[in-house]
Amino acid sequence: MAHDAKRETFEPVQRDAEAHRPDAESQREFRERVTKLVFGGDQKAYDEFIRVLRESTPDGVEVILRGSAVTGRKWGSDEPFDADGPGTSDLDVTFVGGDMVMLYRDFHIPGLHSAPLSEEHPFASPAMAPLRERLCDMTGRAVNLQATTEIVQGVRDIVMNQPYLVLIEKQDEPPKPD
């Protein structure tokens, strides 16, 4: 049997993580959904949540939110956010970059991608526990805090293409003294 010498061509794999970031319209839609689902439509409560996060986030770190608060549906079961009643769905907050992973001691990928500080991992980051407690009190629900490196987030953007809301943009780090 003769082999067809016709060569197949493939589009190059997109390696630019920026190409996978949600666009401005998606970000607006996600922010509106989160404000409605998590904060009952109260923009001031959302803004206060962001203010508290910003106080605890050093320069050089981006903060994102993933999960059902962003999509409106639970992954896997497709149930709506808070399907089991108000406050029953959690928030999945991730700190991307900087040295945030250094604040964790439980990891999915050692030194690169932490386990979330959560009900399942209550000792993942003692340093982040006061912030988690404050955010849980503010929202009336579990808030899971995780840290990852930019490289892991970039791979997730490319491979998993999960929607997320940027809560805090990465601020440039101040120059280091000589």
What would you note in describing this structure?
The chain is an alpha+beta fold and about 180 residues long. It has one domain. Helices cover about 30% and strands about 15% of the residues. It has five helices and six strands. The chain has helices spanning about 25-40, 45-55, 70, 130-140, 150-160, and strands at about 60-65, 90-95, 105-110, 115, 145-150, 165-170. It has a four-stranded mixed β-sheet. β3 (about 105-110) and β4 form a beta hairpin. α2 (about 45-55) runs antiparallel to α4 (about 130-140). The longest helix is centred in the first third of the chain and has 16 residues, at about 25-40. Mean pLDDT is about 90; it is low at about 1-20.
Outline of this structure?
With 178 residues, the protein is an alpha+beta fold. The chain has helices spanning 24-39, 43-55, 68-71, 129-139, 150-159, and strands at residues 61-66, 91-97, 107-109, 113-114, 143-148, 164-168.
Sequence of strands across the biggest β-sheet: 5-2-1-6
Distance between the termini: 70 Å
Number of strands: 6
* Low-confidence runs: 1-19
| Count of domains | 1
Percent of residues in β-strands:
15-25%
Structural class: alpha+beta
Quaternary state of this entry equals: single chain
Q: What is the C-alpha radius of gyration, as a whole number of Å?
A: 19 Å
- State the order of secondary-structure elements, H for helix, E for strand: HHEHEEEHEHE
Write the layout of secondary structure elements.
Blueprint: H1 24-39, H2 43-55, E1 61-66, H3 68-71, E2 91-97, E3 107-109, E4 113-114, H4 129-139, E5 143-148, H5 150-159, E6 164-168
